[in-house]
Write a structure and sequence with these properties.
Blueprint: H1 9-24, H2 32-38, E1 52-57, E2 62-67, E3 70-76, E4 89-92, E5 95-97, E6 113-115, E7 122-125, E8 138-140, H3 142-151, E9 157-161, E10 168-170, H4 190-194, H5 203-209, E11 226-232, H6 238-248, H7 262-274, H8 285-295, E12 303-309, E13 312-321, E14 330-335, E15 347-351, H9 360-364, E16 367-368, H10 371-380, E17 386-390, E18 406-407
Parallel strand pairs: 1-9, 7-8, 11-17
Antiparallel strand pairs: 1-2, 2-3, 4-9, 4-18, 5-6, 6-7, 10-15, 11-12, 12-13, 13-16, 14-15, 14-17
Length: 409
């Protein structure tokens, strides 16, 4: 882990800029001549940089910038004062403006603004008195804010917590891995060749020696990190499930409203009569189990996976969380760098609510993603893709473009 700590902000900015240019994001590419002078001709291509993400601690009044697991810079901040506290949670940079003025607080200047919410929370240059003093935004010193502004892109994650947290490496089977298609060989069948004298003894050897693998085309969105989120889904009540199943089997239980009304009671009685059971019209565990069995009912998934690319929904599927009534907390898993054609990628995890919900790796043991869904995610997977698992609600589409913003307080 690399940590930079200097007394002089200008020095810190200079060091950060050098690291950013050389190893982080390659913001400014080297010219062809400079690249040839800097490395031998036989040297392999430089490794792509891991994704950047930021962690903000309100109690410590500090922001940390990570590249994967490596800490590359820290800075003091000033967050929201009493009555205007900065919300904690998982955010993304939604908008960037070098010059911006507040439309909430007397047109106050907000230089180098990086918006986190459409309701007015942002990173920007401001005074740092050594304690929370803003109206909810996260103030930064100008040299740091300038360097940071040049490194970030829209969609980059910013996790705001009360206490300090840090990313940890994690490997688990539930985390998607890159999809590698099976190789198919283009060739003519033996039957086709045998049926055509012109092909026998001539074309077949050529085909065998020059067989061409039919590979899946490159992902056209490979440079666009996905934003994925898993949240619990409120299950139907037992009565609603029972009404729906009775209706499916032809027993008119009335509307699926969860109310044990006259029609539902009559439908249960009719079912009991047909099943040669005591006709009571009452709902018991035994009658519920019997109706479930006769209707071929399978317990549905209890959570939903949603996927966005460039702030737009592109995929949704049901998944399951074991022990759904237990706390989940809020956890962010991020895929590190990989190249197209590679079969594996490492992930990192950040717990956005401390001990609530337990350790991130333990939470993964509770997630069940159907095989079909897992395969679809593998095909879409790109470097920097994140998966947030939370039992909190998230911000829906606002019409302005947003990621899955999760507020934890």
């Amino acid at each position: 882990m690399l940590s930079i700590h200097k007394n002089n902000w200008n020095t810190r900015t200079s060091v950060l800029a050098k690291i950013a240019g050389a190893a982080l994001l390659s913001i400014t590419s080297l010219s062809g001549a400079a690249a040839r002078d800097a490395a031998p001709a036989a040297e392999s291509e430089p490794q792509e940089a891991a994704p950047l993400h930021m962690l903000v601690s309100l109690n410590e009044q500090k922001i940390k910038v990570y590249q994967g697991l490596d800490l590359i810079e820290t800075s003091p901040i000033s967050s929201g004062k009493s009555g205007y506290s900065t919300p904690t949670g998982v955010f993304s940079i939604l908008e960037k403006r070098r010059k911006h003025f507040s439309n909430l607080y007397d047109n106050a200047p907000m230089p180098l603004m990086q918006r986190l919410t459409w309701s007015g929370i942002a990173l920007h240059v401001g005074k740092l008195p050594g304690y929370p003093a803003s109206h909810g935004c996260i103030r930064l010193p100008r040299p740091f804010a300038s360097s940071l502004y040049n490194l970030t892109n829209r969609g980059m994650h910013v996790v705001v917590t009360r206490d300090l947290t840090e990313p940890v490496g994690v490997r688990h089977g539930v985390l998607p891995q890159p999809f590698v298609p099976k190789t198919e060989v283009a060739s003519l069948s033996g039957k086709t060749i045998a049926a055509d004298p012109a092909l026998r003894g001539a074309i077949r050897p050529v085909i065998l020696e020059n067989s061409v693998p039919l590979l899946q085309p490159d992902n056209p969105h490979f440079d666009r990190p996905l934003r994925m989120i898993i949240t619990p889904q409120k299950p139907l009540s037992r009565m609603k499930v029972l009404q729906r199943l009775l209706n499916q089997m032809g027993f008119n239980a009335g509307p699926v409203d969860g109310v044990m009304g006259r029609k539902t009671r009559a439908a249960i009685s009719l079912y009991q009569e047909g099943a040669e059971l005591p006709v009571t019209g009452r709902v018991t565990d035994a009658i519920v189990a019997r109706i479930h069995k006769d209707a071929g009912y399978e317990k549905p998934h209890n959570a939903v996976l949603r996927v966005r690319r460039k702030f737009r929904d592109i995929y949704q599927a049901p998944v399951s969380v074991k022990e759904i009534d237990r706390e989940i907390g809020t956890h962010v898993f991020t895929a590190l760098q990989f190249k197209q054609g590679e079969s594996s990628v490492d992930w990192i995890a950040v717990s956005a609510e401390g001990a609530r919900g337990g350790a991130s790796i333990d939470l993964l043991e509770r997630i069940d993603i159907p095989e079909k869904v897992s395969k679809e995610l593998s095909k879409m997977l790109t470097p920097g893709t994140s998966l947030t698992v939370t039992d909190r609600s998230f911000k829906r589409n606002t019409g302005l473009g947003t990621d899955f913003v999760v507020i934890t307080r």
